[in-house]
Amino acid sequence: MTLLSLDGVTKRYARGYREVQALVDVALDVEPGDFTAIWGGSRSGKTTLLRVGAGIERPDAGSVVYDGRDLATLSRRDRARLLLDEIGCVWQTGRITRGLSVLDHVALPRFKARSHPQARREAHEMLERVGIPQAASARWHELTDGERTRVALAHALIRRPRLLLADEPTANLNMIEREQVLSVLRSVAEEAGVAVVMTAPDAPNLLQSHRLMSLDAGRLLKPRSEQRGTLIDFPRPGERASRGA
């Protein structure tokens, strides 16, 4: 069952007297448990693709369907509710609410459903999962860029989303940190059935994903299984033997 489907999506921006095509006829289907990685250079359209997929921006052409619902037909309130309850986002420009510690910022989405001590326990477990439990008492200005990205990831995952959209979550991380974050993303896809779509500026460090695509000047290049001569489609564990049978 497809959870997120982009069909013929085109998005344009005015930049001075020029019109920039951020996305051009993009088609993408993502199922629960998929871990899809999309790489591309600066201004290739990666962030726009995720923002359109989250319903934050509307395409100029084409459709974006989440769980059978066309996001363009939803009210602003309904789209905001999806972002609170079902769609987790990790952005490079994220920030912590003024005055909150990292722990309380991560716990914030759970305060309504849990007692504050229980929500904080869950937040601490999530910080451990992304590898920065030592940052629990820190404030935003005390964090490195890599720590800020992982705080944003913990804040998104504690919501238990069905869809996770992560904009370059491996940026500003060293090799060990990068592998740790990729392992977390793969595990939430495989163990929790979350549909994960992440972007990155290059391909070699994304081989833990199930599917690897590239985005160039707003055009999405499909895996080899879908389009000859482009990137390969990485099988999930256990699939290799069944495909060769």
Describe what is shown at a glance.
This protein is an alpha/beta fold and 245 residues long. It has helices at residues 46-53, 76-85, 102-107, 116-129, 145-157, 175-192, 239-244; strands at residues 4-15, 18-30, 35-39, 61-66, 69-70, 87-90, 163-167, 195-200, 211-216, 219-221.
Question: Which features characterize this protein?
Answer:
single chain, 245 residues, alpha/beta, 6-stranded mixed beta sheet, 7 helices, 10 strands, 31% helix, 25% strand, globular
Topology of this protein?
Layout: E1 4-15, E2 18-30, E3 35-39, H1 46-53, E4 61-66, E5 69-70, H2 76-85, E6 87-90, H3 102-107, H4 116-129, H5 145-157, E7 163-167, H6 175-192, E8 195-200, E9 211-216, E10 219-221, H7 239-244
Parallel strand pairs: 3-8, 3-9, 6-7, 7-8
Antiparallel strand pairs: 1-2, 1-4, 4-5, 9-10
Helix pairs in contact: 4-5
Stretches where pLDDT is under 50 for at least 5 consecutive residues are 227-245
The whole-angstrom Rg is 18 Å
In order across it, which strands form the biggest sheet?
6-7-8-3-9-10
The rounded distance between the terminal residues' Cα atoms is 24 Å
Number of helices: 7
Average pLDDT score: 87
Structure description:
By secondary structure, the protein is an alpha/beta fold. It is built from 7 helices and 10 strands. Strand 9 (211-216) and strand 10 form a beta hairpin. Helix 4 crosses helix 5. It starts with a strand and ends with a helix. The relative contact order is 0.18.
